[in-house]
Write the structure tokens for this entry.
Amino acid sequence: MTAGKWLKTACNLCYINCGIEVLVNDGRLEKVRGDRSSPKSQGYLCNKASRIPYYAHHRDRLTSPLRRRADGGFDEIGWDVAIAEIAARLRDVVDQYGGKSIALYGGGGQGNHAGGAYGSGLLRALGSRSTFNALSQEKTGDFWVNGHMFGSQTCHTAEDVHHCDLLLVIGANPWIAHGFPNARDHLNQIRKDPARKLIVIDPRRTETAEMANLHLSVRPGADAFLLGALLATLVRSDRIDRAFIDEHTIGFPEVRQALLNIPVEAWAAAADIPVADIERCAAMIAAAKAMVVRVELGIQQGTNSTLNSYLEKLLIMLSGSFGRKGTNQLHSWLQPLWGNSPNQTFAPTGDVIIGGLLPPNIFPEAVLKDHPDRLRCAGSTVPTRPTPPQIPKPWSRRCARSTCAWSSTLR
């Protein structure tokens, strides 16, 4: 690379993929700035992207393939040698046990899209579709709900925050975590515009909650109680979009009756939220012309996470905040980060496969299970240089039962 030159690229530390420019000096990334010519991000830069040089040149980052020695240490080897050895061992496993005995372990839905795409392509070429990653434990409850509500687990809802007049944030802090394009810019625009409102549901008084017109400080783990009480309040007061419901949904009478059965006062108390605040929230939702709901791991990795995802989407549907400008939409994909796997199970353990993904916590059983289709080989993404004292004992046991193990990292 040319020393001291600014080059255009894109950040891959989250799924927004903002346009950035990086200063390259003698082959090293020295500085990052937002790319003002990017039609999407228009020069926006978040705290994560600004730290790319730190991540890229961290002293513990792997810079070459490592081969494990018999004593548990590692020796650096060349890329051509590593690729040839891995390919030979993978071919041996496929010949002996079939492609289904191989799995991909590690990674997630963001920060390594290219690795995920290439890894999935390699798995399919070998005859396997078994992927264990963090996304399966963060998001599969949401994916499962999507499959039942929209017909496919890849029908992911997105947010038109830019044109809404009410932003409802549940279990997220966009000021720090971002999650939608130019998050801080748009939060500031909402804060300064008297015609636009912000509601935040979060146990903590986050930076985003500080900006909110209404902050509902729900008891940790009680989101389902709060969302249920809110939905019941909307239905009881008939502040729902009946035209949208009649035209675009089925099963509403059963849902309506279930919501009417909710004891609002008791559920509000369980959530530690005054009924008056729930009624105020319902009134703001009813008054909005275009509401968008933004959720994240705060409700997707807590108690009743799958129910939370259903109630969140029920709120979108009952308010008619779907498929219009300034509301929630269905995400469009160039290449989906996960798949659609309704009614599929992983034979060695019997676990349900959601979104084509398997949770890492069942990986040991998938290797150690006395089953003809148990795993014999797994590839993983390793972000840092491993040292023997940090490798837990179960790994050595798994490797002893596995035919081989291999690892990969970005060059």
Summary: Residues 62 and 385 are 5 Å apart (CA to CA).
